[in-house]
Amino acid sequence: MVKRKYHSSVSVYYSLISFLKNPNTVLSGEDLFKTLNRINEQRTEKMTIPASVVNIENILNADGVINLQTQNKKPVFINQLMLEDKAKMKIQYSTTSNARIDVLNGFKIGTGINWNEINFIVLDKKSGEVIFDYENHYRKSMPVRSQVL
C-alpha cells in the first residue's frame, strides 16, 4: 500500500478495508487483533492496538453491508469510538481514492456521558488523517496516530 502513495499511518487501514470489501468476508476480533499485531511488528512507526478489539465477535460483509457483532452484545470502546452490537457500515472510495466508511448505525464518538452518532468516516490517504462527520454534520479531523480505528 505504501507503494501506492498512501501515508504510512493509514496504509494498514486501507489493507483492512480492501479485505473487508470482499463479499462474504468474515473476520473475528481476535483474528483482527493478531493480524494488526503481526503488521505492527514489521512497522518502524509502531501503533497502539487496543486490546478491546478482541471483544468484537465478528465483522461480516453481507452484500456490501458490513455488520459488526460484539461479544455479549456489549459495546466495544476503541479510544474515543464506541462500536455497538449490530453496527452496520458501507465502504466506498471517493473520486480522490480516499476511503469513506458510511455508518448506517452503531458508531459513536465521544467520552464519558457525551456520545455523538457518526455519519461517516474518511481516511485521507495522503495526509494520514481521519475525518469524522458527526450527526449534526460537524466535522473533526485528526491524525490517525491519535485515533486507532
Give the % helix: 10-25%
Task: Summarize the main sheet.
Answer: 9 strands, antiparallel
User: What is the CA-based Rg, rounded?
Assistant: 14 Å
What is the average per-residue confidence, as pLDDT, rounded to a whole number? Answer: 88
Helix/strand order, N-terminal first: HEHEEEEEEEE
Written account of the structure:
- With 149 residues, the chain is of the alpha+beta class.
- The protein has one domain.
- It contains two helices and nine strands.
- Strands 1, 2, 3, 4, 5, 6, 7, 8 and 9 form a nine-stranded antiparallel β-sheet that branches.
- The longest helix has 14 residues.
- 21% of the residues are buried.
- The mean pLDDT is 88.
Q: What are the SSEs and their pairings?
A:
Blueprint: H1 8-20, E1 26-27, H2 29-42, E2 56-62, E3 65-70, E4 76-78, E5 81-93, E6 99-111, E7 114-123, E8 129-134, E9 139-143
Antiparallel strand pairs: 1-2, 2-3, 3-5, 4-5, 5-6, 6-7, 7-8, 8-9
In short:
The protein has 149 residues and is α+β, with helices and mostly antiparallel strands. Helix content is 18%, strand content 44%.
Distinctive features:
149 residues; alpha+beta; 9-stranded antiparallel beta sheet; 2 helices; 9 strands
